[in-house]
């Protein structure tokens, strides 16, 4: 079957940045401002979101996925105002999201689960079976496609989660700790997949593993206490590490150096 | 497509003639996609090695089909359940059915007491609504909340399921007790709308708890202890209930966007 390219796909983007945040504030719980005045612009490519625990990474991911409404500032996703509930539905068709703690229905098979998520994202009925097969193949779960989710290992579940996030070819893909539970070989495969995805869309990967960011990301975003600390190339992060800092690799030392200098500057 | 591909052009396409430029190749391919006749002509022109290869592939596919794993059994009902509800509503359905049955039996036993079926009607859908929206009962809550069908559409589907479960047993009980159907239907609809409306602000499970306990404390407990039929479930109150149901439904639809986001 030949897939027809639709007019929407060929239409040029009318926005400069897939993600644009200005003085963004997002609450975690009722009071705590976990994202507190964040300015951020992300283009096409793979962006590694780094930061210590409590930096506000997961809260930021929830705001980018439109699950949480920002409490202040501006957030524009794919050219759409994401603080406006009215415009969410068409925007959400173009998003893919893997939460950090992603729940699932244990009785579903991998295929049924990815199909269900494609349906929730309003993919055209005729396109779903092909898209599901492709997503499952891309994460390397072809031979387990018809196994129940409850029978899968942690790493396989994570890959099923990635498959549901990419099934609709999202223009903005958000992955919160996607490499948790993957073994080293799967992690290498996953990085290849990330680079492929980042060629055409804006991919944001939140992780605590500096090595993942250096290996697979085209851009590093460093956050601390709800604010942007530093944004740049992985190579620059590594260069900061040559000046000292603590960690096993140059990139890790760069990470700790940047964080320490940001904290002492305040 | 009236003009077919001229034979020389098709021949050079089949032979992958370097003289054929990209534009000509695209023109041929676009025509081939839509014209079975030219595809057949092209198949005849194919070189013998290609035909042999295609035969081999055909044989390999046939063998694979015969010896490979059978088609997977589909579970369309499982998919349908998830499109309309969540599994966790099942125990709730049993509870509500038993509550309605118990209320019906008691009403028939003691017709002079305030009707328990009428006192139960407004709160009967609430537990179902709470379960259908609870983060705790829906494991995939966060992953589904950010999808385009979340919000108005899932709101509509899940509410339909809850009402389709609650209303028939109430209707049956009301009919056997000879009640005016509006007496149980309008309060049930009003409380459903109010729960969804408030739920958009504070979460459906919390809203159900607040409204449900308010009804029980203010109306049900006094009615049972005093044995007087409270005015709110007498026929005089019907116009008020009708107005409340209409206003509540309209407001719920207007505020359906609230359910697109996570309540805090
Ligand atoms: Zn033709």
UniProtKB/TrEMBL annotation, chain A:
GO terms for molecular function: ATP binding. SUPFAM superfamilies: P-loop containing nucleoside triphosphate hydrolases (SSF52540). The keyword DNA repair does not apply. The keyword Transport applies. Residues 19-250 form the ABC transporter domain. Keywords: ATP-binding, Nucleotide-binding, Transport. It holds the Pfam family ABC_tran. Belongs to the ABC transporter superfamily. This is ABC transporter ATP-binding protein. It comes from Paractinoplanes bogorensis.
TrEMBL record, chain B:
Gene3D superfamilies: Anti-sigma factor, zinc-finger domain. The chain crosses the membrane at residues 84-104, 116-134, 155-175, 181-200, 207-226, 238-256. Keywords: Membrane, Transcription, Transcription regulation, Transmembrane, Transmembrane helix. This is Zf-HC2 domain-containing protein. It comes from Paractinoplanes bogorensis.
């Amino acid at each position: 079957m030949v897939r027809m390219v639709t007019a929407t796909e060929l239409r040029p983007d009318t926005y400069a940045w897939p993600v644009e945040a200005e003085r963004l504030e997002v609450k975690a719980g009722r009071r705590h401002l976990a994202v507190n005045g964040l300015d951020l612009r992300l283009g096409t490519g793979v962006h590694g979101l780094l930061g210590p625990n409590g930096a506000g990474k997961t809260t930021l991911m929830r705001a980018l996925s439109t699950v949480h409404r920002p409490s202040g500032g501006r957030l524009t996703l794919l050219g759409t105002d994401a603080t406006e509930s009215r415009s969410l539905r068409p925007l959400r068709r173009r998003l893919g999201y893997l939460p950090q703690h992603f729940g699932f229905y244990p009785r579903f098979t991998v295929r049924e689960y990815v199909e269900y998520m494609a349906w929730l994202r309003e993919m055209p009925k005729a396109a779903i079976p092909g898209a599901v097969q492709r997503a499952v193949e891309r994460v390397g779960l072809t031979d387990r496609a018809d196994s129940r989710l409850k029978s899968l290992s942690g790493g396989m579940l994570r890959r099923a989660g990635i498959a549901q996030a990419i099934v609709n070819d999202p223009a903005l893909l958000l992955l919160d700790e996607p490499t948790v539970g993957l073994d080293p070989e799967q992690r290498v495969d996953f990085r290849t997949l990330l680079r492929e995805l980042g060629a055409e869309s804006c991919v944001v990967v939140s992780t605590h593993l500096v090595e993942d960011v250096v290996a697979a990301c085209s851009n590093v975003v460093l956050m601390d206490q709800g604010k942007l600390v530093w944004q740049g190339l992985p190579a620059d992060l590594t260069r900061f590490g040559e000046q000292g800092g603590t960690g096993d690799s140059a990139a890790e030392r760069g990470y700790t150096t940047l964080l320490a200098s940001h904290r002492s500057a305040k | 497509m009236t003009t077919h591909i001229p034979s020389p052009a098709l021949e050079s396409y089949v032979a992958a003639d370097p003289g054929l430029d990209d534009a000509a190749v695209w023109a041929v391919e676009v025509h081939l996609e839509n014209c079975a006749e030219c595809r057949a002509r092209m198949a005849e022109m194919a070189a013998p090695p290609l035909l042999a290869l295609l035969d081999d592939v055909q044989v390999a596919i046939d063998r694979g089909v015969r010896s490979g794993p059978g088609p997977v059994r589909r579970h369309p009902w499982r998919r349908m359940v998830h499109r309309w509800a969540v599994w966790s509503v099942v125990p709730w359905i049993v509870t509500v059915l038993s509550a309605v049955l118990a209320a019906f039996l008691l009403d028939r036993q003691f017709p002079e007491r305030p009707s328990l079926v009428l006192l139960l009607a407004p709160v009967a859908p609430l537990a179902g609504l709470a379960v259908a929206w609870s983060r705790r009962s829906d494991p995939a809550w966060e992953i589904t909340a950010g999808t385009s069908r979340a919000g108005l559409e899932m709101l509509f589907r899940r509410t339909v399921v809850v009402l389709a479960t609650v209303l028939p047993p109430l209707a049956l009980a009301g009919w056997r007790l000879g009640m005016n159907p509006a007496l149980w239907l309008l309060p049930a609809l009003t409380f459903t709308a109010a729960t969804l409306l408030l739920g958009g602000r504070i979460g459906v499970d919390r809203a159900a708890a607040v409204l449900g306990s308010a009804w029980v404390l203010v109306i049900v407990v006094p009615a049972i202890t005093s044995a007087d039929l409270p005015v709110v479930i007498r026929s005089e109150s019907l116009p008020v209930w009708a107005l409340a149901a209409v206003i509540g439904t309209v407001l719920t639809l207007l505020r359906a966007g609230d359910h697109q986001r996570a309540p805090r």
